[in-house]
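User: Let's play a game. I give you a shape written as tokens, and you guess the letters that built it. Ready? Here's round one.
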């Protein structure tokens, strides 16, 4: 049997059957490779993850800010949570928060560890 999400181009709302069972979808590395902005409208993911290539030094690069702002607006229009990956500085975190990326991950918040982080982790919001 052929799965609807294996078709090219992907049908709008692909995976809605799984959503009814409680699954949530994240689109990783948005802005790079196959996960360009057209995938946002095709898949309507619950979470979009802005690729770290657009996060690195976003506070110093107007072109990266424009791309991130466009992705943020598109994600908001389809109701997706906006997450920025690879945040390494407070300046990056602040700019991304202004652009609507309230969820953030990266070394600014903590290094990978096998041990849980004691207390509450830093939050972007």
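Assistant: Ready! My guess for every position:
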């Amino acid at each position: 049997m052929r799965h609807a999400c294996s078709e090219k181009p992907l049908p709008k709302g692909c995976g809605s059957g799984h959503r009814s069972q409680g699954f949530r979808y994240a689109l990783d590395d948005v802005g790079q490779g196959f996960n360009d902005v057209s995938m946002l409208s095709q898949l309507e993911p619950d979470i979009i993850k802005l690729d770290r290539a657009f996060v690195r030094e976003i506070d110093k690069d107007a072109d990266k800010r424009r791309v991130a702002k466009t992705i943020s607006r598109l994600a908001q229009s389809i109701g997706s949570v906006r997450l920025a990956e690879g945040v390494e500085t407070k300046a990056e975190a602040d700019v991304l928060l202004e652009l609507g990326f309230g969820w953030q991950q990266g070394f600014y918040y903590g290094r990978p560890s096998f041990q849980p982080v004691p207390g509450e982790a830093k939050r972007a919001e």
